[in-house]
Amino acid sequence: MTTHDIRRLYLDYFEKQGHAIVPSSSLLPENDPTTLFTGSGMQPMVPYLLGQKHPLGTRLTDSQKCFRSQDVEEVGDNRHTTFFEMLGNWSLGDYFKAEQIPWMYGFLTRELKLDPARLYFTCFRGLTEIGIPRDEESAELWRNLLQTDGVDAGIADFPERDGLQGARIFYYDEKKNWWSRAGVPGAMPIGEPGGPDTEMFWDFGAEGRRHENSAWRELPCHVNCDCGRFMEIGNNVFMQYQRTESGFSALPQKNVDFGGGLERLSAALSDEPDIFKIDLFAPARVKLEELTGQTYGAAAADTRAMRIILDHLRAAVFLIADGAAPGNKDQGYFVRRLLRRSIRYAQKIGRRQSFCPALGEAVIKTYAASYPQLAHEAGRILEELEQEEAKFRRTLDQGMRQFDVLVQGLKNGSSISADAAFDLYQSYGFPLEMTEELAAERSLAVDTKGFDLEMKRHQELSRQGSEHKFKGGLSDHSEMSVKYHTATHLLHATLKKVLGEHVEQRGSNITPERLRFDFSHPAKMTAEQISETEKLINAAISRDYPVSWQEMSVEEARAKQAIGLFAERYDGIVKVYTIGDSGEPAVADPGAPAYSREICGGPHVEHTGVLGHFRIVKEEACSAGIRRIKAVLE
């Protein structure tokens, strides 16, 4: 069974349980200025978990693409990746523990045919001081299911202190088995929902404990000890509580949020603790071995480098496909960082010529059947990879020359200053370890403590800048953000009229101060085109068009000529917003009865007359074939 088979099997399985299949959302959250990436399966579902009606009903299932930028430095072991797919199923006030746990057990043991004797489970220990009991119901459900398959399933507490204790089911505290957006119960603000979770683990056997982390061998082994023996493959969140002024109360709508790592389930099914040996990585891994002359698994340092390259190229391909081109800001910064780390590690294992497009092509071919958008965007993706690699290789050469200048005259045993090391990092992309390696070859040291202080200062400034930049926005439905959101619909429709039907939205970012809109177009807009765009939009605003929405099938939306961000990925029932007469086709003409019709989740103003005057502040290149408009309402 391939990993693609597992994804299909999972979706089909929950569809049989009455769930509607929801397509994956973009890795770049649409019109949400509070976060750069979709980092979990539940992230696009938060509004519905909090009570908003989902157009497809109360039972949903999906495979969500995810990217976690905070895991970049963790990649290199046998299980961490920055990009992954999260299988999910959701109950929005429908079923609860008694249905979800048997369904998951059935999927693992009957559909995937995983050996129940190698499955372990964890549950919430409880917090008596705030009136939340231990989750004995989940523990008993797991035990009964295991015993049905002849597995002696003991339940134990404090495994982090006492180890496995011969049990199969374990209680952990709120740091391991509680979920809320704010973290542990004590950190939850008033009104925040949350609840206990129960996690599923696969046992690779005692040899897994020795696989790469032999330092763990003398410590108590338990499923959350990270020794390499156990791998978490899924997590049921039971959102059943809400923080109140007086403590915690039961939610009127109890939700289920399951998340299961697709790649990890594939590793369990293959009984292979190394994620990078599953079939999804095989074509790129073989190509990387061919290009570098190295054999994966032959040497620890080379294997670590190859894992970093394989992960980072896969993530970059998906991010570029969703509209994040390499750059110095926002999502583009992380794409650039992924590619430059890959190039540096490729050099360490002997590859000094171009390789990113070749690996990118292997990734695209691997996923094309499941994600047709990759094949559709292949030319643009590979061009971005090629250009970024060529640019960084030139930067590397410049950095080496700068390094040679810095060390001239330094005596053996002396140090490269923190300022100089940080300049190499910031200006030429040299990470600290690369500077240290080069310095060691010349019997020099590096002021690493000073570098770390400089890095922390830089990160703090960046964090403060990001907090300021992304403060507010659609996450709290501020008035100006809602206005700008509606203005993007006018802009999208108008650009199609002024520039042509080839224009497609590639991303947007909205704050209460301005809108930013990325779109496909091969050339710089002329002054006349910018003027015409402003003129048409302001004419539409002055006509004070009504803004309305309807729920309809994708087929109906297409028949009504609705547009939308990556509309081909929508399925089932969608929400369509119309600016103008909802019964007429949209033609982006101020004199027409309908100006814009677009698939969107909202929210929007009720009529365009409240928007004010629309003005384009800047039109610029974003990446190859992608332009960016920044505009304000005055």
TrEMBL record:
GO cellular component entries: cytosol
GO molecular-function terms, A-Z: alanine-tRNA ligase activity; aminoacyl-tRNA deacylase activity; ATP binding; tRNA binding; zinc ion binding
Protein origin, superkingdom: Bacteria
InterPro entries in UniProt: aa-tRNA-synth_II/BPL/LPL, Ala-tRNA-lgiase_IIc, Ala-tRNA-ligase_IIc_anticod-bd, Ala-tRNA-synth_IIc_core, Ala-tRNA-synth_IIc_N, Ala-tRNA_ligase, Ala_tRNA_ligase_euk/bac, Thr/Ala-tRNA-synth_IIc_edit
Cofactor dependence: Zn(2+)
GO biological process, one term: alanyl-tRNA aminoacylation
Catalytic activity: tRNA(Ala) + L-alanine + ATP = L-alanyl-tRNA(Ala) + AMP + diphosphate
EC code(s) of this entry: 6.1.1.7
Listed transmembrane segments: none
SMART domains, alphabetized: tRNA_SAD (SM00863)
Gene3D superfamilies: 3.30.54.20, Bira Bifunctional Protein, Domain 2, Threonyl-trna Synthetase, Chain A, domain 2
Domain named Alanyl-transfer RNA synthetases family profile: residues: 1-634
Protein keywords: Aminoacyl-tRNA synthetase, ATP-binding, Cytoplasm, Ligase, Metal-binding, Nucleotide-binding, Protein biosynthesis, RNA-binding, tRNA-binding, Zinc
Subcellular location: Cytoplasm
SUPFAM superfamilies documented for this protein: Class II aaRS and biotin synthetases, Putative anticodon-binding domain of alanyl-tRNA synthetase (AlaRS), ThrRS/AlaRS common domain
PROSITE patterns cross-referenced by the UniProt entry: AA_TRNA_LIGASE_II_ALA
UniProt-annotated binding residues for Zn(2+): 485, 489, 600, 604
Co-factor binding comment: Binds 1 zinc ion per subunit.
Family: Belongs to the class-II aminoacyl-tRNA synthetase family.
Function in brief: Catalyzes the attachment of alanine to tRNA(Ala) in a two-step reaction: alanine is first activated by ATP to form Ala-AMP and then transferred to the acceptor end of tRNA(Ala). Also edits incorrectly charged Ser-tRNA(Ala) and Gly-tRNA(Ala) via its editing domain.
Domain notes: Consists of three domains; the N-terminal catalytic domain, the editing domain and the C-terminal C-Ala domain. The editing domain removes incorrectly charged amino acids, while the C-Ala domain, along with tRNA(Ala), serves as a bridge to cooperatively bring together the editing and aminoacylation centers thus stimulating deacylation of misacylated tRNAs.
Protein name as it appears in the record: Alanine--tRNA ligase
Organism: Candidatus Magasanikbacteria bacterium GW2011_GWA2_56_11
